Amino acid sequence: MTYSLSVRPRALGEIEAARDGYAPVDHGESFVAEIEAVFEAIKAMPLRFPIIYGALHRALLRRYPFAVFFRIRPATEHVVVLAVLPQRSDPAKWPRR
């Protein structure tokens, strides 16, 4: 069973900002490819990623210090990506999304 996935506009902005940050060192496209790979893994098996707060799950990127935060809507088999943040960011921001 594959879940559908949507990305909130704020998370898209965070992805674009990170891509632009990696672009000067020729890693922008590689970063986007890594994000897409994580999205595919989330769609395939979202429950394998740990719950970190309430119903908020986190998936880590392998090559970059970023985390994807998402919620699962089991009734509709849908995943909503709420944020893509650097792992160094303030954890107090995560629950407020």
Describe this structure in a few short sentences.
Helix content is 32%, strand content 30%. With 97 residues, the chain is of the alpha+beta class. It has a five-stranded mixed β-sheet with strand order 1-5-4-3-2.
Helix-strand blueprint:
Layout: E1 4-7, H1 9-22, H2 28-44, E2 51-53, E3 56-60, E4 66-73, E5 78-86
Parallel strand pairs: 1-5
Antiparallel strand pairs: 2-3, 3-4, 4-5
Helix pairs in contact: 1-2
Q: What is the total tally of β strands? A: 5
And the CATH topology? YaeB-like fold
- Please tell me the total number of domains: 1
Text of the CATH class: Alpha Beta
Q: Could you name the ranges where pLDDT drops below 50 across 5 or more consecutive residues? A: none
Order of strands side by side in the largest beta sheet? 1-5-4-3-2
The CATH superfamily is known as RelE-like
Order of helices and strands: EHHEEEE
Sheet/helix structural class: alpha+beta
Helix fraction, binned, reads 25-40%
Cα separation of the termini:
27 Å
Instruction: Report Rg.
Output: 13 Å
Q: Provide the CATH architecture.
A: 2-Layer Sandwich
The share of residues in extended strands comes to 25-35%
Task: Please count the helical segments.
Answer: 2
Assembly state here? Answer: single chain
- Output mean pLDDT: 92
User: Rough shape?
Assistant: globular
Largest sheet: 5 strands, mixed
